TrEMBL record:
UniProt key word Coiled coil: yes
Coiled-coil ranges per UniProt: 88-115
Region named Disordered: 1-43
Protein name: Putative endonuclease-reverse transcriptase panstrongylus lignarius
Any one GO molecular function term: endonuclease activity
Keyword field: Coiled coil, Endonuclease, Hydrolase, Nuclease, Nucleotidyltransferase, RNA-directed DNA polymerase, Transferase
Biased composition (Polar residues): 1-17
Length: 323
């Protein structure tokens, strides 16, 4: 075999009689080209998707970085916090100042109310209110009042400037009489004990604020006598005296004694300690609706004794025995 034949056999496959014939493709060249393109795309689809995802992630990162920079610029820094702290300190100081001014205004208002209350009561000093007094039809109330004062109370020659009926929601008759002298009023009030059991009641004509305070003091007095059955509580117009100490009722602070907390003074004087519920009951006396509608008093059975009773004083229990 020549060199030319060897070279031909090296690079070509010689066709012999035994070489099978190549089958002819049924598809056209264009279809073959499309199939090759589809195979190429299917083989490289994963690469395209990863490229697209990387591109999207890069865009998101860039967007988040830009937003974060904007937010960081808008966030307060140390200087801003210092300025804010200074403003808060100013607001706190201003609030404390306003609270002090409000408290001063409240005290001033209470002082003015006390002055007005005193002046109104002074103007009513010659008046007395009569309850349970019967009169005949078409009869002037002046004569029954004069007769009561002279025959029952022993106060003669009373002069009444005017007298009239006061409308009462309860339906019972009430009459107001204005006398010509405060001395007559005091003489009548000194002898009202003679009316015990008659159903007739006489009391002074006081302004509403004084009546509210007296109502509270009367209820406190009842509790004091419940705790100290041997004690003596002297009731006056706007205060009561217990163990030589004067107790008043402040419309803002409740029971007071020499400008101090009256309940604390009672605890020390009686030798007990009020619970939180009992203190709330005393403070609720400030409200007229509680005084008028609630007759239930707190239970004092659980009061703990913090010191002994004063020497010479005895306190009775419910069974009548002495402690």
């Amino acid at each position: 075999m020549s060199n030319e034949d060897n070279t031909l056999n090296k690079y070509c496959t010689p066709k012999t009689s035994e070489t099978p014939k190549r089958r002819r493709s049924k598809s056209s060249p264009e279809e073959n080209q499309n199939k090759k393109l589809q195979r190429f795309k299917s083989q490289n689809s994963g690469l395209e998707e990863s490229f697209v995802m990387e591109n999207i992630m890069d865009k998101l990162n860039n967007m988040l970085d830009s937003k974060l920079k904007i937010l960081m610029q808008e966030l307060p820094n140390k200087e801003d916090f210092k300025i804010l702290g200074g403003k808060l300190d100013f607001i706190v100081a201003e609030n404390a100042k306003l609270k002090q001014e409000v408290e001063e205004l409240k005290n001033r208002e209470r002082g003015l109310s006390d002055i007005v209350e005193h002046l109104v009561n002074k103007d009513k000093a010659k008046n007395l209110i009569f309850r349970g007094l019967n009169k005949k039809d078409n009869e002037e109330i002046v004569e029954p009042i004069k007769e009561l004062c002279g025959k029952v109370l022993g106060v003669d020659n009373v002069i009444i400037n005017r007298a009239f009926e006061i409308k009462n929601k309860g339906g019972k008759s009430m009459f107001l009489a204005e006398f010509n002298s405060e001395n007559i009023v005091w003489e009548i009030m000194r002898n009202v004990k003679r009316l015990k059991g008659t159903g007739i009641v006489i009391h002074k004509d006081l302004c509403n604020r004084t009546r509210r305070r007296r109502r509270c003091l009367w209820r406190v007095r009842a509790k004091v006598l419940e705790l100290d059955t041997m004690g003596v509580v002297l009731m006056r117009n706007s205060y009561f005296i217990y163990k030589n100490k004067r107790f008043t009722w402040d419309m803002g602070n409740g029971l007071r004694c020499d400008g101090k907390d009256g309940l604390a003074e009672l605890e020390q004087m009686i030798g007990i300690r009020f619970s939180a519920n009992e203190r709330n009951w005393f403070m609720n006396l400030l409200h007229d609706d509680v005084v008028a509608k609630s007759n239930a008093a707190p239970s004092f059975q659980e009061i703990s004794t913090v010191q002994g009773m004063e020497s010479g004083k005895a306190r009775k229990t419910k069974n009548g025995e002495k402690e």
